[in-house]
Design a protein that fits this description.
The structure is a homodimer.
Chain A (H helix, E strand, L loop, with lengths): L14 H4 L9 H13 L4 H7 L5 E2 H7 L5 H13 L3 E6 L5 E6 L1 H34 L3
Antiparallel strand pairs in A: 1-3, 2-3
Chain A binds a DNA duplex (20 and 20 nucleotides) through helix 5.
DNA sequence: CGGCATCCTAGTTGATACTG
DNA sequence: CAGTATCAACTAGGATGCCG
């Protein structure tokens, strides 16, 4: 994991600089970026992995911790995250059934960046809000 | 969770650890996170700010650099980014008209995190792809 | 408890045509 | 050149009901 530096044998011109031009369009990199953005950009995924950040959780627990999410969307979100290898789903053979979800190490590396973004959002919200007010006042509603 | 003691006058210490619980739901922080995610999570915004990362660009230039984007969506995306203070729009009084878009410093700080995320996406795509294949094979289509 | 199947709406995007 | 306007298509998401 440790996605610190990329391939040492690459002469440093690679991904990072390319990410925007190359990661832009219909390229492979572009698809990778789009994939991740589609996942964490949707309404609930980030909330789910955020809730799983430290502890593993059961289905209903997650539902309690994420106000407003429907059963359907929680299920769908969990399935996608599981499919992408970001969380694991463990069914315990008990009665009543108990299912636990847990962040994988891959999911753990993702959430670091997601949190950084969230942090940025919180810090810069005042500026964004101000910019909106300014914009709306000059561009008549 | 839900230690909902929200105090408008406590900005800095809190955020990072809270981001997930607190930034989760319908709180102020939650709205900030959602706002940003809605912006960079949409189909084109990240591509646009990525293209503006180094140089300022004209409308048609942007369109050329972002294959597949329609006039309409480019316009809408630019307007939203402008409204949020992430880019500036400069109209030069010439004939034919020339309009240039440029990243603001606020936009510049955002793109750092967005790029980190994009970088993560590129590096971990193989793992995600593998996870999907594994998932799809066990969960019969 | 932890789902899946179905129906349905509201918002987002794309194609197309027209304009200052 | 840099848009705006209109319409059609698609889809994410919510509500509901049933099941192992």
């Amino acid at each position: 994991m440790a996605s610190t530096r990329r391939d040492p044998s690459e002469p440093a011109t690679t991904d990072y600089e390319r990410t925007c031009e190359d990661g832009a369009a219909g390229t492979e990199h572009g698809r990778a970026v789009r994939d991740v953005l589609d996942r964490i950009g949707d309404k609930w995924s980030l909330l789910v992995i955020g809730t799983l950040r430290h502890e593993r959780r059961r289905f209903t627990e997650l539902q309690r911790h994420i106000p407003g999410i429907s059963q359907r969307m929680l299920t769908l979100t969990l399935r996608q995250l599981e499919r992408d290898g970001l969380i694991t789903r463990t069914v315990h053979a008990e009665v009543p059934p108990r299912v636990e979800y847990e962040l994988t190490s891959l999911g753990g590396t993702l959430i670091v960046h997601a949190m950084a973004l969230a942090h940025w959002a919180i810090e810069n919200r005042p500026q964004i809000e101000a910019a909106r007010v300014a914009y709306d006042s000059t561009h008549a509603r």
